[in-house]
Batch of 4 targets.
Target 1
Amino acid sequence: MLQATKQLSLIDFGNVKLFINGEWTSASNGSTFSVKNPNTGEVVAEVPRGAKEETKAAIEAANGALPNWAKLTANDRADYLLKVRDLMIEHEAELATIMSIEMGKAYTEACGEVKYAASFLTWYAEEGRRVYGETIPASSPNKRLFVVKQPVGIIAAITPWNFPLAMMTRKLGPALAAGCTGIVKPASQSPLSALAFAALVKKAGIPKGVVNIVAGATAEISDEIFENPVVKKISFTGSTEVGKKLVEKSANQLKKLSLELGGHAPFIVFEDADLEKAAEGAVASKFRNAGQTCVCANRIYVHENIKERFTKLFVEKVLALKVGNSLDQTVQIGPLVSKEGLGKVQEHVEDAISKGAEVLTGGKVTGDQKGFYYEPTVLGNVTKDMIIMTEETFGPVAPITTFQNDEEVIYEANNTEYGLAAYLYTSNIQRAVTVSEALNFGVIGLNDAVPGVAQAPFGGMNHSGYGREGGHQGIKDYLEEKYISLEL
Ligand code: NAP
């Protein structure tokens, strides 16, 4: 690990600073918080513990930068975004290393996230050029009616640890392209990726104050964001529990809020599915980021007639996954992000076993006990009274259950308060369409385990939140529509 950090140019692990108004800044009271490597449990960096004062300074900086940034042409803003995109790609190895060290994502997967994160900058650089207004037919001959779109102003992005770069650029890309400026509050477990990104923002010459990054005292930072009248829009990605609190908090200042929250994705394998493809898809969907994604398959429903064949194929593929230090390029499954995360996985598996689940592979903590590793696990004989069938596990555990017919599986798949992603595998076109339409989820993977791309809208229904990120839809939240009525 030390070997890896010696080669870093974007961030000095021994001297980490916040990024406010284009400058590297310590906390005003000198306090810090620790970032630990989940592979070893070791502290890798002390990060300034930003709080109210730093947040206020960041908001003021964003406010100062707003008029000039908003005045730039969309083409000029696009040039800046594309410069940062190019720098991200140039620094892919370094960004992936930082991410892997601070939150344990397997290195090769982290490289994939860097590309995915950069793709939001590419997409919104272009989408910003297509923020078209409208003209509306008037009711009298001497009137002309127009709609113009303008940036909402100062925005705040609150991001989770599981995609430290992509969840940030999915918000900053459209915000900056629309002409907004703002502040990012990264997760306390993964602030280093965001701060390394800030180094690229600086390198690209983005004007001071346009992007500010403040990590630290979560409650104080968030109070300032929600109470400061200058902040007009907040985009949050994280747990449903916190999302609900933020809805209440947003009322006082009537903040525009978008929420990308938790999920509990069903993964349905019909009798007519290509089983090899379905098993491969189930591995990709379930074990990505060691099972710590909001769109991970959390409940695998297999038609009873193909249960044995599917399970055999699936278990074989799971057995081939290599667990270990996330910086090892041959590893697919790194550690869980924290001891608490590991504890939750253990609790879900123990609960399932106590209620009759069969461990088909895995089922134990692994490694040297310093890192938070859990064996890729497959559970059979799973029933709906088990916690794993209703709560996000956020770990490498795949519960398999069976169904007899389409109506039953549609009912069970929809029988959740969440509504983020759902997957189905079938070769029957009729079934593909009717089941996709019947599933109450914002994203459907139809014979596709990894549907997320920058050009498509991503977001949830019900307790998975509201608003869409990605696609042409993703820039709307950062724009106000102003109606102008002209009498000649
Ligand atoms: P989390 O605990 O809700 O935290 C997310 C962010 O919110 C972090 O920056 C966190 O800061 C901050 N936060 C925590 N409590 C807060 C409060 N009371 N007020 C304001 N901010 C607060 O979620 P997480 O554990 O980091 O992330 C995992 C969750 O995110 C899962 O539920 C997952 O499904 C969801 N997720 C959803 C999507 C999506 O697109 N729908 C994508 C990725 C993840 P601290 O780190 O300092 O606590």
Target 2
Amino acid sequence: MYDRIMTCTIIVGGFFGDEGKGKIVAHIAHQDRPTIIARGGVGPNAGHTVQVGDRQYGVRMVPSGFVYPDARLCIGAGVLVDPRVLLRELDEVHAQDRCFVDYRCGIIDEEHIARDKKSEHLRDTIGSTGTGCGPANADRVMRIGRLARDVPELAPYLLDVPAAVNAEIDGGAAVLIEGTQGFGISLYYGTYPFVTSKDTSASQMASDVGVGPTSIDDVVVVFKAYPTRVGEGPFSTEMGHDQSNALGIQEFGTVTHRERRIGCWDGEMARYSAMVNGCTQAAITGIDKVDPDCFGATEWSKLSTKARDFIRCAEDDIGRPVALISTGPELTQIVDLRAEYGD
Ligand code: GTP
Ligand code: IMP
Ligand code: MG
């Protein structure tokens, strides 16, 4: 534990989503002890996985920082809320008394979900998650549809999230801004049209929760040693099933349970994504897939030469230090070098 007071940190995905942001957010939260964890991103199309001991949680609306019990959890105005999903999750993780929703969040209703699932373009061509996000954001741009303040069930949770978050920043507390999705599926910078319905970069996450760029101290971009992609669209480093099976890698989506496509490290994409995100420090997850001997390691000295070489090469690509190295899905399976690199 070391002093990281007065930092406002954004955590975003550097590849195609599912990089393990949930795990990284949960770890940073336990170390930095933020008073608020605010979630940005598209909405319930995201699925963050957090494993604490033997318990695995998958959350789509509640910030994955919920596993740290001492923070208020906020959902920023830029995020689409599906009230049914949110209320169910709040019940499951018992976070009703500390979770808040900006009163300006857009709302996903049954009709948005039906449109998402029925549209051949969204369902088959793009391979959307079918969670209603695309149609709800389309309606939002057209300025039709409800906001959180219009939904009676959400009344107990409504908050002016920017006011709450900026008050904490001004008061010198640590604040985490949790991103969802990944750079490759950004509406602006991703592989259009095979993208989600919004930008996914760090600047978007700051805007989603109402924090200005001058208040951000750190941007942690999370990369997966073996990137994955769900849904359609180009994936230049994708490997065949034979290769991924030989490596023992198989993953399924948290939201749709679709099999994730697996690829090799993409240095060019990592560099570009770090640039647009304004990366200050990178995190790499799944180093145990590069070398299974590293599984569960918590110190740099316990990582194998193969793993260290991988990280050094990744650092050259990214152009920033890799300060967090995840060695397994569980919360404590991580090497945290942030103190060495400083702020
Ligand atoms: P989105 O917000 O939907 O983009 O998801 P995410 O970035 O939070 O990632 P998600 O939880 O969907 O997927 C990451 C998967 O990798 C989960 O199953 C995690 O439990 C797992 N995971 C995270 N870190 C590691 C790691 O270091 N090693 C291994 N083996 N698995 C990991
Ligand atoms: P939509 O966001 O549901 O419209 O889906 C558009 C594309 O983004 C599809 O390829 C989805 O698989 C992908 N996508 C959306 N959210 C996530 C996510 O959180 N992780 C990974 N892929 C996602
Ligand atoms: Mg996910």
Target 3
Amino acid sequence: MSQVRKHIYADNAATSPLSRKAYEAMLPYLMNDYGNASQPYVFARKPKKVLQEARAVIADCIGATSEEIFFTSCGTESNNWVIQGAFRQGKHIVTSAIEHHSILRPCAVCGDATLIPVSKDGVVFYDYYRAALDNNASGLASIMFANNEIGTVEPIAELAEIAHQKGWLFHTDAVQAVGHTPINVKELGIDLLSSSAHKFNGPKGIGFLYKKKGIEWPSLLMGGSQEFGNRAGTENVPSIVGMATALQENIDSLQMNIKHLQYLEDILINGLKDNNISFCRNGAANHIAGNISLSFPAADGEALLHRLDLMGISVSTGSACDSKETQVSHVLKAIHLDEQLAKGTIRISFGRWNMEDEVHLIVSSLKKIL
Ligand code: PLP
């Protein structure tokens, strides 16, 4: 009789499994307390109340206040809200060459943006950034907190400070960072921040935008007066509750999660070395724990992904949104990775529920394939 092998999911940067606690917290608002939170009758009281509670929990997790949190449908919507809103106000945008497409595409379509190059580790070059801000009277600087393909964490506090010195606003796409690294928007000087629940064990199709009190921003979705008149659309109460529960859970065990992920990373890297597998690792020393971009010389990343898939292991070649494109990703191009190495690149991204034996299996599977 053939043995059924456990599936190993190592693509948590693409999406992460829903936490059981979040799932259970969502259930009452899917089945029983399904009232529209905007209605004035008694049946809507509970959804309205949990909406307020979820807003407070999320605000607290990032050092904001409740009235600064606006629920959206995903990270893509939050990013589009910021970028399209900036262009509509006539602001010039300075962003990096390694942003997610939900920043880069609206920039390309809506107006004129300056793309800042990055180092071989994926860190934004300060000099280019400063010069770009100097060349334009005022605008919006938008630099991602952490890169989705190589995990590099950008020097957010410094970049925000430079923006403010020049009278610019500072936005960060923190989709890969929220719930994975400590964030305090006030201490870091962030004016706007995008986030998405499915990257921190919350449900898919829900996110939020942090907008510092006092900043006026045109709405992206217009219609009803939900979200204090800033974002129209009936609130997705079950998902919002799930998002707040998952975020709180991750923040409560943040240091433990980071330690566990660093431990798994070490096992992977040492395992590859011990097995004499040649590889180079992309990204900076300061990266999101568990996000590991590896390039294997003379290998084909696409083929590696499919071979691992056949062995029951899910990894990625670049960002999830890029998986249909076979050409080298814009991130690997921006860090000037040798083209042959870029083609042999995979991203392994562990989550808090990955275990040591799974990492050993990934190493032995890679050894077999390579
Ligand atoms: N920004 C980054 C850095 C991401 O990694 C992603 C998703 O992969 C997004 C934005 C888009 O988020 P969502 O899938 O919630 O639209």
Target 4
Amino acid sequence: MFGPIKIAPSLLSADFLNLERDVAVIGIAGPDYLHLDVMDGHFVPNLTIGPMFVKALKRRFDIPLDVHLMIENTSEQLDWYIDAGADLITVHVESGAAKQACKPGSSRCVQDAQDPEALLEQLRSIRAAGRMAGLSLNPGTPACAITPFLTELDLVLVMSVHPGFGGQSFIDDSLQKLDQIVVDARALGVDPIIEIDGGINEQTAAKVAAHGADMLVAGNAIFGARDPNQALHDIRAAAKATQP
Ligand code: DX5
Ligand code: ZN
């Protein structure tokens, strides 16, 4: 929340046959984290990587790992990612029981529908393992869904595209959601990192930083660029320029 700007390149847009090369290339620009999208083919209609891959990256590179869990069975699988060495683990407020109440486009608050105890247990076990705990919300989920958990979080991850795929366009309504989260966090006297994920490029980076996002995920805009290091640098500069 208005802290130093952090950039987390998303490996989803890297070349999966040359991941070691792509991470090494981006390492030159000094990413703050590597963003790893874990998808299970249930919570989102795509399937990506698992804990073995996280563990292999952890062994090979000295870049903090930001693991974004887009999975249905978070409670059962969370320990896999703690054991694999994730530095920051983000779970979705819509996973598990709550998903039914979070249809895309719904403005209904999901507070009553989720299992807050299970979610709290997940967040607390991440922190108990000495890692940072994040909570994410989809574009169709209102900001109030995460308010009850704000005091238990190191980070809030606002999805600015529907999760599942890289290369989508930024959803502008995300800016109002950032504003609301800043208001809610201030009211509670907490100061989580606010991460934003989806459609981030130089232009949208400038917008989101002005609204309180201080950790920016970028996949396509970095790994799809002719010069990924320059792209990372430009996104960081654009965000810094508009941060109040
Ligand atoms: C989408 C993922 C994102 C994705 C972002 O579900 O959570 O991290 O890689 O990709 P871009 O930056 O291309 O929108
Ligand atoms: Zn992500």
